[in-house]
Task: inverse folding
């Protein structure tokens, strides 16, 4: 963990250093604050976080123990990257949830001096203020013959303790102002004037509430990556197969069948079966993949790019089909027409045979909106104009297709930019990604990522299969 330094390096030469060993945890007003950031935005705070003190035989001063991962999970976060700040404060005047504490009544022109007061009628709180205003550091300071400094009252010892950078105005939300000096203002109970190390931030104006704390231990900051805790699933063992069971089998030969007997006479059905066979024979064995969620098959590549690529292929198919329709409508068959028909049919089959698993899923399958008590599931396949197989895909420029594509593009973009930290495109410097002249390089990177997505898919599925069988 890194320590938070509240002073400039040049000023540290003239400031007394803090003791390494402190008595944090010995006072009832000691508080460990925990602030959680997502990127640079504060998302959660706890002003009285639990901690443990550990005492060792060879070390007199106890150590503070925190469990950062479990503490951040108690906020409800299960995964992601976060930055956590720990503050180790001792409340001097007021506290986080005190209703009528201190507030700023006046700010100097330089914003380095503030006059504060209170409207509280709590006798105990007012007594603490009176004690604080009576006992300034110099009036309480005593130096013995050995040169050691001490203070007459406990509150002065808590505040000063030989350090100048201990006292802070705490506005909450990990926002503080360092105090370098203070003085009593007017008659007893009239108020306090604080001298600040830096000009007060402009977000704090007159009537801003705060409480006064002493920083007992320098604040700590730590960046962490939170990964989900995998829950172990228990299953019941099944009986082994009975290989001794006797089943009467009739052994015989099947009759010979022709090409048309197997594929049928319908041209479109026959071609669809051939496409399926050719597509599988030209690729490696496919594992069972759930294409309804990008997390199952988009790891290194871009979901947005793959969606755009499928739309491009659909538009090609529409152009080829439109040309075939015109050629087939010609009243007289010609050699030129037959040649072009064969050429466009070949192009259609090339596009379909080149579909990967995700594109086959979107082209040949159909899904619909599902709402349940658990979640909402939106259509993951390209919109269809028929309800039964073989499905007919909606044209790219149809209203239903445009609406679906816009919605699914947002889902894909969210996966690429927010949820998928393994996207290879994120390894490219920002200024290169933003330059449109490098679009071909980004395309090449996503193509490489898609290749390794297949490798990652096989490895992931193999690991799952191994875990099931072990």
Result:
């Amino acid at each position: 963990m890194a320590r938070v330094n509240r002073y400039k390096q040049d000023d540290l030469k003239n400031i007394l250093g803090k003791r390494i060993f402190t008595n944090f945890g010995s006072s009832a007003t000691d508080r460990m604050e925990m602030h959680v950031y997502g990127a640079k935005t504060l998302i959660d705070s706890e002003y009285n976080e639990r901690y443990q003190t550990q005492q060792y035989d060879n070390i007199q001063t106890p150590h503070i123990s925190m469990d950062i991962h479990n503490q951040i999970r108690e906020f409800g976060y299960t995964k992601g990257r976060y930055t956590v700040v720990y503050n180790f404060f001792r409340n001097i005047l007021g506290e986080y949830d005190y209703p009528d504490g201190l507030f700023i009544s006046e700010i100097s022109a330089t914003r380095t001096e503030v006059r504060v007061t209170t409207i509280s009628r709590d006798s105990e709180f007012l007594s603490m203020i009176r004690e604080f205003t009576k006992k300034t550091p110099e009036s309480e300071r005593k130096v013995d013959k050995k040169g050691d400094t001490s203070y007459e009252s406990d509150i002065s010892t808590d505040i000063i303790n030989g350090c100048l950078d201990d006292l802070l105005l705490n506005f909450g939300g990990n926002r503080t102002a360092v105090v370098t000096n203070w003085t009593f203002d007017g008659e007893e109970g009239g108020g306090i004037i604080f001298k600040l190390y830096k000009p007060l931030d402009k977000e704090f104006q007159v009537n801003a509430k705060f409480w006064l704390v002493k920083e007992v231990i320098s604040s700590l900051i730590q960046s962490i990556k939170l990964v989900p805790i995998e829950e172990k699933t228990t299953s019941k063992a099944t009986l082994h197969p009975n290989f001794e069971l006797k089943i009467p089998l009739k052994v015989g030969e099947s009759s010979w069948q022709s090409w048309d007997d197997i594929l049928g006479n319908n041209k479109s059905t026959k071609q669809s079966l051939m496409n399926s066979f050719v597509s599988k024979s030209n690729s490696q064995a496919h594992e069972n993949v759930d294409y309804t969620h990008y997390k199952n098959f988009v790891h290194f590549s871009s979901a947005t790019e793959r969606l755009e690529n499928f739309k491009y292929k659909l538009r090609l198919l529409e152009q080829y089909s439109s040309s075939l329709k015109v050629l087939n409508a010609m009243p007289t068959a010609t050699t030129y027409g037959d040649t072009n028909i064969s050429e466009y049919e070949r192009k259609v089959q090339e596009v379909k045979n080149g579909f990967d698993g995700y594109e086959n899923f979107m082209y040949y399958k159909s899904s619909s909106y599902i709402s349940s008590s658990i979640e909402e599931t939106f259509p993951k396949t390209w919109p269809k104009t028929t309800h039964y197989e073989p499905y007919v895909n909606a044209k790219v420029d149809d209203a239903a297709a445009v609406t679906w594509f816009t919605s699914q593009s947002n889902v894909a973009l969210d996966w690429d930019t927010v949820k998928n930290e393994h996207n290879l495109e994120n390894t490219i410097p920002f200024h290169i990604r933003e330059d449109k002249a490098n679009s071909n390089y980004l395309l090449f990177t996503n193509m490489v990522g898609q290749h390794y997505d297949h490798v990652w898919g096989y490895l992931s599925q193999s690991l799952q299969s191994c875990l099931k069988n072990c």
